[in-house]
Amino acid sequence: MQRILARSLFPLILLVLQSTSGRPQDAGTWVDSNGNVHFTKPPAGVTQPVAAQPVAAQLGAAPPVVAQPSAAIVPVNHYQRWQDPAESAFSVSLPVGWHISGGTARTTQIEVHYVVRAQSPDGGAQMFMDDPKIMMREVPNRATQMMGMRVGQVMPTGSGTSLVLEPYRPGAQFASEYVQQSLCPSATMMRGGPILSQTQALNAEFGPIAQAEGKTVHVDAGDVSFKCGTSIGYAYAITVQAFQPGGQVSIWAVYRIAGYLSTPADSASAAAAVNQALGTFQMNQAWLQNYARECNDTAGNVIRESNAITQSTLQRSQQMEAQEEANNAAWKKNSDANFNAIENTNKAITNSGSSGSGDNGNGHDYNAQLGTKKVCNDVGSCQTVGANVDTWYSDCSGQFYPGTNTGEPPPANLSACWAKGH
User: Fold this and answer.
1) Helices assigned H by DSSP within 76-148
2) CB 114 within 8 A of CB 94
């Protein structure tokens, strides 16, 4: 499964780290022309942020903007590029015909969210990316305790932003809490954990960048799946924690949050939409250069971060593809036996006068003529797959992948929760 994060927060984290070292006890309050509150005088050109509705409410209604098919941009896999309508900062690939809304949302001039909301035409599958309500955070420390600040309290900084005082949480833990707080308070059957390979790759990529900015940084990627009543859900998050060596202030942020809610029947298309959006997220390089200048990023680390993130995503995608190719190679060794088995089944069905579809022995549809079957996981996500592969496993998003030729799941570092299909 392809993954991506694209929000460049390190310059902002550096500004916040610098400002919190001398945090004002009694900051002034400014209100810009859009009604946004700032604790320092805001710079010119602050734009109106996207309305901060709860994500669950946004997913409950069809977004107003529709991606119209275009013969010039619709690829053979029925996805098309959707361009950020607010600032043309980014683009993603999403299914043709889905209702799509969102765009760049600035909570301050330099604190940016890349928001996407998409819904299938029948409303059965709904995906999201980013949330303008998610604020940056500061880890409680001795200084905040001495100042009488409590966990959950919102604090102003000297850079025009605000922080929430909260302990650091890795990506999977934050995703789980986000589900319970914003997506589905009654969520059940939640499972997931860290995505080890991407966590390791991101820390290796971001270490030198953070060092160049005079910080130490740690990144965590993780995801969770869950049930929400009769619906199926998924959430993926990457969190980053940064601090200056020798300092007691530690700032952390949610670098990416994405996921979906869907009916069981639409879970495969919902998972595919999220994976496609994350894996095809692209920044507008001209916009990124302007943003680096806005952040006073003379070293160009914003651009370096974006390139590092893209490389991490490509590596993860290549790992999954390589694993799948290896499995396919193993299956091809037994292709003649599989083909003969299907042919014999087809003959038996033809002789008996059956339509060619039936039960695969596990209560799921089996089509001998097409050589397909339906597999499901314990959460309820189902997918039609090749019948010549005995064992299939789903990842946290509900996407199914073939097991090894010995029936084992794909490598553990590629997913937090491989679940055997049945």
Assistant:
1) 142-146
2) no
Measure Cα distances from 202 to 130, 214, 256 in Å: 19, 18, 13
Q: Which pLDDT band holds residue 30 (cuts at 50, 70, 90)? A: very low
Buried b (16+ CB within 10 A) or exposed e, 246-266: eeebbbbbbbbbbbbbbbbeb
Write the DSSP assignment of 269-329 as a string of letters: HHHHHHHHHHHH-EE-HHHHHHHHHHTT-TT-HHHHHHHHHHHHHHHHHHHHHHHHHHHHH
For residue 41, what is the DSSP state? P
Q: How far apart are the first and last CA of the chain?
A: 21
The structural domains of the chain, with segments of one domain joined by +, span: 10-322, 335-420
pLDDT, tens digit, for every residue of 329-357? 655 554 444 444 445 444 544 454 444 44
Is the separation of the CB atoms in 165 and 190 below 8 Å? no
Give the rounded distance of the alpha carbon of 120 from its chain centre.
Answer: 18
What does the DSSP assignment read for 257-271?
EEEEEE-GGGHHHHH
Which two three-digit tokens encode residue 401?
Answer: 């992948």
User: 36 burial class (0-12, 13-18, 19+ CB within 10 angstroms)?
Assistant: middle
> Structure tokens of 65?
């903007």
- pTM passes above 0.70: yes
| Residue type present at position 45 | G
Q: Residue 281: name the closest of 123, 111, 104, 400 by CA.
A: 104
How open is the CA angle 28-34-62, to the nearest 5 degrees?
130
**Distant-in-sequence contacts of 390-393, Cβ < 8 A, 24+ apart:** 391/420, 391/421, 392/420, 392/421, 393/418, 393/419, 393/420, 393/421
- Kindly state the tokens that stand for 131: 């949330």
Cα–Cα distance measured from residue 248 to residue 91, given in angstroms and rounded to the nearest whole number: 38
